[in-house]
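Supplementary Text 2. Reproducibility record for the structural model of the 103-residue chain.

All settings were left at their defaults, and a single model was retained for analysis rather than an ensemble. We include the record here because the model underlies the residue-level annotations in Supplementary Table 4.
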Amino acid sequence: MRDIADMLPQLLELKRAAEAGPPLSTREIETRCNAYEKNMIGRSFAWVAKSGGTSQPIEELESADFLKTIDLDGLLGRVISFLAGLLLPVATILYKTAKRSKQ
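Retained model, structure tokens:
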């Protein structure tokens, strides 16, 4: 809703300008888009930061400040993704094999 409230005045102004005169220049459209994006990006990144993003807090590690968050955007995230890609198919096969042997 907030994005629409920010975008609507910019769109209405572009509409008025387009109806009143010559075709709008790329620069005029860019100026209106930049005004909207400036508000929207600031608000959305604040929301992402509040929601935790990809850094997950670990509260039980109070003694080590550098270990209080795990950043899954970097190397650790890629390693976890790679290992999950290798181990999950193996675990699935083992589970299905164990399930069949019980029957």
